[in-house]
């Protein structure tokens, strides 16, 4: 078996690797990936065993495709990489880098690793409960609803263009760039899952987005009060893997999952 986690040298990604190492066999390969060679090497060395550190910048689609071609097949993939986002700088100044990782990286992983996912495998995009469609104004929702992956990418480009030309607010885009980004992540998962669903369900394969809940990490601490009362990365990873490694629930396929439950794509008050 081959398992791979992106953005895995710290936080939830590292905890997922640690939990996979505890649950999988000693002959299984577990790839801990990240952009910084030193951090990746240090993290992989700390865990040892079947954990293998690999440098991977998910914003480089060619590098993602190259690694997928090298591996040839995978069984478990967590697309978990995130870009830096802090409240002390204007959101517009951070949008390009953040979206390149969170969304461009998600798209690259979906395009290159889904085709090599073995039957019965698991492909999870680590997202957020903020990724439901009701977090966008109604006129923007059709950009992400019942669309293809190409159309999701086009909508993300449209949003970034609006940020840079100063029309984002007038167009109804939220100021907090995390909201459209998370919606786009979930929309991307739904887009590819819609095409694969019949065969994947037959094979017992899961493709889904997953919200780990509030976790005390470097990324979350600047944004939330009392984050010290949130889950630890290890607690969140354990709950995620309990669900991921269980038998496939067809109702969860292609959906956004939090604590084992499907979050309605259109929000609580609109389940159309």
From TrEMBL:
Keyword hit for Zinc: no
Keywords: NADP, Oxidoreductase
Top-level taxonomic group: Bacteria
MF-aspect GO terms: oxidoreductase activity
Record-linked InterPro entries: NAD(P)-bd_dom_sf (IPR036291), SDR_fam (IPR002347)
Cited SUPFAM superfamilies: NAD(P)-binding Rossmann-fold domains
Segments crossing the lipid bilayer: none
PANTHER family for the chain: CARBONYL REDUCTASE 1-RELATED, CHAIN DEHYDROGENASE FAMILY PROTEIN, PUTATIVE (AFU_ORTHOLOGUE AFUA_3G15350)-RELATED
Similarity-based family: Belongs to the short-chain dehydrogenases/reductases (SDR) family.
Protein name as annotated: Carbonyl reductase
Species in which this protein is naturally found: Kibdelosporangium phytohabitans
